[in-house]
Input
Amino acid sequence: MKKVILMLFCVLVATVAFGQKDEDEKTNTNKGKPIARLDQADRIIIDVFTDIWMNKPDDSIMATKAINRGASAYVMRDFPMGKSNFSFAIGAGVSCHNMYSNAVAVRESVTDTSNAFGYTFTGKTVFQKLPATINGTETSYKNNKLTAVYIDIPLEFRFRTKNEGQKFKAAIGFKIGYMLSSHLKYRGDDVVWNYTNQSWSLNSEELVKLKSYKVPNIETYRMGPTVRIGWGWVNVSAYYSLTNLFKKNKGPEMYPISIGLSITPL
Output
């Protein structure tokens, strides 16, 4: 999460390049008065949201928390369209999605007596529910999540009023993302998924903090429509992923719907 915060900070620092307005947007040089054209706006967008995971495995296998918090930050270049209330914007940024659940993503395996280990991998990723007990010993965990970080290119078609001060605004758009990293993070009893027995085993009686990178079979790209509406610098936003979290036929066909608040300070 620290790396994600650092990347978000770098995105915000980069907004300096977008800070100056074009002279023709400030005044009409013939009359010396403001022209009836939208100023550039919403050049920084900071999102705080929760992911609703659709089409996930049954609750008997996996249950997610009600709030799966995430964050994103974008730098946008706004292009007013003539003297209308509309503009077009394009930008870049990073976003972090988290899925908090009671299951761990593991590689699917099947029994194979011809293999020295007694099993072979199918090439798919599945979720295994964390155990409540192992051989009569109670087990528990405090944190268990899957994280995916993307670099995104968002595009927006915008509308906003021209009145001074706080303005009504709305935007519909689309964004395409490339996954920078993915990882699993677990904190709790030292449990291990045993591929040979297809069951959980207790590795030790210690509490552990584990972090494993490169979750198998997560889709490299993602895309989907976005919408944002609000007043002033506070907006409600949403994103609908058209891409599954995992590659086709390589894992559960689950995808997120992100709903949250957007802050547009500049």
